[in-house]
Design goal:
This protein is an alpha/beta fold. It is built from 9 helices and 16 strands. The strands form 4 sheets. It has an 8-stranded mixed beta sheet, sandwiched between helices. β1 (47-51) and β2 (55-60) form a beta hairpin. α1 (6-21) runs antiparallel to α3. The longest helix is centred in the last third of the chain and has 21 residues, at 257-277.
Length: 388
């Protein structure tokens, strides 16, 4: 039977709107942490603040043994909000444009439900993590020891591609790895009217941009998603001067570790080959990003079971397509078993502005759905630890 929690639902909306009105960037989430702490105090859950600078770790008691962890990210983005909401951001140039305000609120709601319902099969650890948008918050939390005695971890992300009330559970890759690259090309300057006297770094860079598109088109199995994008091309100082130097910067997104390795190697091989063919020199460097988020079948099965109990079979859905965006929850999954889900936030008849858009918003109906789901999942996973 469907359960209703009108008082909790109203409280969650108030919390989310307060967080949305006061967004903070990575490792600056001090007011956010204070509001989380005040809610934990009200519920009566002990916690540690200042973990990985601004993070919070809260523990809900259960029988002795390994813990189930629930994670919510806290940070906002450097975007000027244009939603026109009555609770729009009051911090100039900062906005919760990715739904982290909803993530925090849902997990706070789950913590309250777990505390009130009691009789947990396993203790539960709640992680409020800073700096997901920077891709470094999860690592900082891990380095601070938050996974000590944790056997499983679960998290999720709101998604405007799905209707409110839908929970997306998928076994396998759900988010891509996010590696960056920088290619520095050194040619030879000359007068633009006498190009034969120099080596044009613009031409070398242009050939390279075009050639890099062949990596995904011709070297990667079409069934395995991958992206190579050159997002920055800087060269030249004047219209009548042959550029002696060019810089290309871009991103590589892949879902499989083997594809990740191949694409990185191919970018370097192509850069060096084209530079040599054009008698230029090149330096290639890579910035290692977050790994792909990979849900194991066993952990996805636990999340699916919880979703079925909360929203039913019609609203427990598979992922349409993997998200090629990054998510540092992947670092947690490298250490312990777990699953990352998506929660629909599209209300009927509304425009689905994408995440990281200045007009992004969520249907607040997701807050109670997420709270109930994560509460049920913590219990389901805890029971599974003991073979129940």
């Amino acid at each position: 039977m469907k359960q209703h929690y009108p008082e909790l639902a109203a409280r969650l909306v108030a919390v989310r709107r307060d967080l949305h009105r006061h967004p903070e960037l990575a490792f600056e989430e001090r007011r956010t942490a204070e509001r989380i702490a005040s809610e934990l105090d009200r519920i009566g859950i002990p916690y540690r603040a200042g973990v990985a600078e601004t993070g919070i770790v809260a523990d809900i008691d259960g029988p002795p043994g390994p813990k189930i962890a629930l994670r919510a990210d806290m940070d906002a983005l450097p975007i000027q909000e244009e939603t026109g909401l009555p609770f729009a951001s009051e911090n100039e140039g900062v906005m919760h444009a990715c739904g982290h305000d909803a993530h925090v609120t849902m997990v706070l709601g789950a913590a309250e439900l777990l505390t009130k319902e009691g009789s947990l099969p396993a203790p539960v650890r709640i992680l409020f993590q800073p700096a997901e948008e920077r891709g470094s918050g999860a690592k900082a939390m891990i380095d601070a020891g938050v996974l000590e005695d944790v056997a499983m971890i679960f998290g999720g992300h709101v998604d405007r591609s799905y209707s409110t009330g839908q929970i997306v559970v998928h076994a396998g890759a759900v988010n891509a790895s996010t590696d960056g690259f920088r290619i520095e090309i050194d040619g030879k300057g000359a007068h633009a009217a006498r190009p034969h006297e120099g080596v044009d770094a613009v031409v070398v860079g242009s050939l390279l941009v075009t050639a890099l598109q062949s990596v995904v088109a011709r070297e990667v199995n079409p069934a395995h998603a991958a992206v190579v994008t050159v997002g920055r091309f800087a060269a030249g100082t004047a219209a009548n001067v042959l550029a002696s130097r060019a810089i290309l910067e871009g991103t590589i997104r892949t879902l499989l570790p083997s594809v990740r390795e191949h694409v990185i190697a191919s970018v370097e091989r192509i850069a060096r080959s084209i530079a040599e063919a054009q008698t230029a020199s090149v330096r290639v460097s890579f910035l290692e990003g977050t790994p792909a988020v990979l849900n194991s079948p066993e952990m996805a099965a636990l999340a699916r079971r919880a979703a079925l109990e909360v929203v039913g079979a019609d609203n427990t859905v598979e992922l349409h397509t993997p998200n090629m965006g990054g998510e540092d929850f992947a670092y947690f999954l490298e250490k312990v078993r777990g699953c990352y889900v998506r929660l629909g936030v599209r209300a009927p008849g509304t425009e689905a502005h994408p995440a990281h858009s200045s007009r992004f918003d969520v249907d607040e109906g997701v807050l109670l759905v997420g709270a109930r789901f994560f509460s049920r999942l913590a219990k389901t996973a805890g029971a599974a630890l003991h073979g129940r």
